[in-house]
Structures are given as structure tokens and as C-alpha cells.
Amino acid sequence: MSVLDYDTHYIPVSLFAVAVGAIVIFTITFPVLGLITIPIMIGLIGGIFTEAISYVEEPNEAPHQSSEEE
User: Fold this and answer.
1) Residue 3 has what DSSP assignment?
2) CB count in 10 Å sphere of residue 3
3) What is the pTM for the complete model shown?
């Protein structure tokens, strides 16, 4: 059984089903990824601008006093 049964071309149903399945999976997956990642990135960028998230280590204000006796 084939989808297109010509003398020169023979496309089996299983190959056609795999192609349609891949199209459906990609069509469903990419909008879901967009809906998940866009709010996360907005929050991350907003946190960086409001300085709630910092990738720079702040230096200690006072030097640490050693308690060792000499």
C-alpha cells in the first residue's frame, strides 16, 4: 500500500506517516517552548536590570579578622 503509487515513484504509508508525525510534533513543540522560555527570559533580564540578580561578586566591606594568636 502506498500514498502515491506511480510507475516511477513508490512512497510507502509508513514513510508518509513518519513525515506527518514529525511535522505535527514540531508544530506543537515550538509554540510550547516559546510560551515557557519567553517569560523565563523576561524574568531573568528584568532581574538583572533591577539588580536582584548579579553575576559579579561584591567585595567584602570589612577585611576578615584572624583569630589566630601568635
Assistant:
1) E
2) 14
3) 0.46
